[in-house]
TrEMBL record:
Transmembrane stretches, start-end: 12-33, 74-95, 116-139, 159-179, 186-204, 233-254
Organism, as annotated: Carboxydichorda subterranea
Taxonomy, superkingdom: Bacteria
Species lineage: Bacteria, Bacillati, Bacillota, Limnochordia, Limnochordales
Pfam families for this protein: ABC2_membrane_2 (PF12679)
Keyword list, A-Z: Membrane, Transmembrane, Transmembrane helix
Protein name (record): ABC transporter permease
Length: 263
């Protein structure tokens, strides 16, 4: 528990900055809705976009509505944007210690390595939860100020799905970081892989082997929009995210246990 709080407090500045920036962006996006609803035919506007961009936006069940606006302008890329936050913190759990020369000290503490790594991954999960909660609160607060329908449960479902995906990406970044000794290389390459997977999901054919491959990753398997529009919580899809989280966390722990850190 001490390691958990040590790592959580060590990154509090990063968490505060990300939460403040993302909260302001979310509030600004939501506040633009009234003027946009009166001047833009969103479905017609989206019809001129390439198919992969329309896929990223998701289906728009009703327009004008605050939910449709938040979906297209925030939730469509929120997971990818917050992915960098989770990746930057999780990849540093191991690589920063190597880069700063503190790994030898850290892993000679009277605790198993796996407990140290899990404690720090738990801190990343808590930090990510704080950022997601601030963004959720900013959207809901703006909805109240604008006098729009306050659909607490719908937005909460959508943000919980986004948070679950964020955790699976953090586990991937933790595992990926165990192959590097330089923090910057671990973060940049992990983000490039995530962006590549996201683009693959959006451009993959609607059927066939490539579509099946696209379905077996957390970035495409969990439908935030499905949750937002009240069509039930995607428990089956979330199971894939949980499996990815467990697999990558387990692989990372194996790598940490086996990798030599002594100079």
């Amino acid at each position: 528990m001490a390691i958990f709080w040590q790592f959580f407090k060590a990154e509090r500045g990063t968490v505060i900055v990300w939460a403040a920036v993302m909260g302001l962006i979310a509030a600004w996006i939501a506040s633009v809705y009234p003027s946009t609803a009166a001047s833009i035919d969103l479905p017609a506007w989206l019809s001129h976009y390439p198919s992969w961009l329309r896929a990223m936006a998701g289906p728009i069940p009703e327009w004008p509505s605050m939910k449709a606006w938040v979906q297209i302008e925030l939730l469509s890329y929120l997971q990818l944007l917050l992915a960098y936050f989770a990746v930057a913190l999780a990849a540093g759990i191991y690589t920063r210690e190597l880069e700063q020369g503190t790994a030898e000290f850290l892993f000679t503490l009277p605790f198993p390595r796996w407990r140290i790594v899990l404690a720090r991954l738990g801190a990343v999960a808590m930090q990510s939860a704080v950022v997601h909660a601030v963004v959720y609160g900013a959207v809901q607060g703006t909805v109240v100020v604008l006098g729009q329908p306050l659909e607490v449960a719908a937005y909460l479902r959508a943000f919980l799905v986004a948070y679950a995906v964020n955790l699976s990406l953090a586990a991937f970044a933790l595992w990926w970081g165990t192959f590097f000794s330089e923090y910057s290389k671990a973060v940049v390459t992990a983000m490039l892989i995530i962006v590549a997977v996201c683009l693959f999901n959006l451009t993959a054919p609607s059927s066939g082997p490539l579509r099946q491959l696209a379905l077996w990753n957390p970035l495409s398997n969990v439908n935030v929009f499905h949750a937002l529009w009240g069509r039930g919580f995607p428990w089956a899809d979330l199971a894939v995210v949980v499996v990815f989280f467990v697999i990558f966390t387990g692989l990372a722990l194996i790598r940490v246990e086996r990798r030599e850190v002594y100079s």
